[in-house]
Predict the structure.
Amino acid sequence: KEKHKILHRLLQDSSS
Amino acid sequence: SPNSSLTEIEHLTQNVLKSYRETCQLRLEDLQLLRWETFTKEEVGSYQKKSMEEMWERCACHITEAIQYVVEFAKRMSGFMDLCQNDQIVLLKAGAMEVVLVRMCRAFNSENRTVFFEGKYASPELFKSLGCNELINSIFDFAHSLSSLHFSENEIALFTALVLINSNRPWLQEKSKVERLQNNLELAFKHMLRKNHREGILAKLPPKGKLRNLCYQHMEKLRSFRQMYPIIVHAVFPPLYKELFS
């Protein structure tokens, strides 16, 4: 998870 | 899939088309309008005089921006967010750049072999200072061959959905779930082509290995660049770009 933290964040961000 | 009704396929089609329209980054009309707006000799020269580091950083930023739109496309596609997070990441990590390369054919003028870049259309020579002429030429050749298919916006939408939803990507945890979505997208794509008498393009689509190879070449070039300028990559390249490609 740490390795892909930005993708994780983008995927979880529902406001985008 | 015998379990998917025509209504289900029609819903999926509409959803993919809408998701694509909302996330296509550049409007086709705008790209067409600027189609003959090319960089002057002086402007090309000034790009060629830029340092390798500056040009790499610029391109890395543009690629990252384009990828963010692809992530958004995926998120809006029905079925994608129902996949487990591991698989969402696997598919995006393997497919986002491939989708960017396919989307690029909209921003490509095959009549003078130029691509839209920083406000105008640019020939391969403009990218000379990147130090990867072979890769740039391969990408231009690829855009040229895709352009010859004269994809409609709807065809690009479904084709790029299929580039992304590929159950053969390694490390998927719920392969069968991806497979089902892929099957439905294939049905949707073929159904649309049949309706528009465009089934002929099926045999002309680029082989999957072609896109994979371009992405591999890009990562190899990044690796060489990083060996020369590790601090630049570390300090100024977009974090998402590094996460995906190094």
